[in-house]
Amino acid sequence: MPVVPGGWSGTITFHLDRDIDTTESSTSGEGIYQSTTTVHFELQTDVTDTFTVTGSDPEDLQFGIGSVDLTGQAANTGTTLERSVYVSDKRNALGCHYLDETGSEIDGSWTLGGQAQGEIHFNDDGTYYISIFGGDPGEEEIPKLMWITYTILEGAANDCPTPGRSEVTGFGQYGEWAYSYSPGILEGTLDPANPGFVLDGSTSVETSSPEGTVTATWHLVHDGPIVLPHE
Hints:
231 residues; ten-stranded antiparallel β-sheet
């Protein structure tokens, strides 16, 4: 009895998580003009991509399912808090000793979407590979704050910067897809003797620049037994 081509449906998701908090100090200048600058950086990011896809087997399954094209919708949601604060301990020629703080912060959320494309590739030993990409690469505006603060530690008012804080508010462009930081190919293995009709799996990788973790999960269902490639 000939094997009838079937269809595929399911989801592939990627989740990006970052939680970075660093402090670094450096010194420059000499004598009374020597200053120490401390940089405090925070980055908290939570991003989820959801690819909802479908696909169809090749029309000729005489030698099994070699590959399946996937199409569908891509959805992306995320939040971020990115804050950089530079605090310099300074003295000027008039003998004023003060702190000069410069900071910026972007804090908000975004939602993006678009079309998804991908592929499932099967091997006769039961291994398979999934690739997926797509979505709108655009960005959204989220609130941004910049400030400068002078704190007087020692010195006459006329010899020092005016103490206090000044702020500028606005918006910054932000938006990113978690899958762009993940492995390009998702890998899994089926039992060649009984491959079943579902592809389930997950994998996690550590990212760099900036550091974080991306976790990919997939659940793709075939409307009948999977026929692996064969001679």
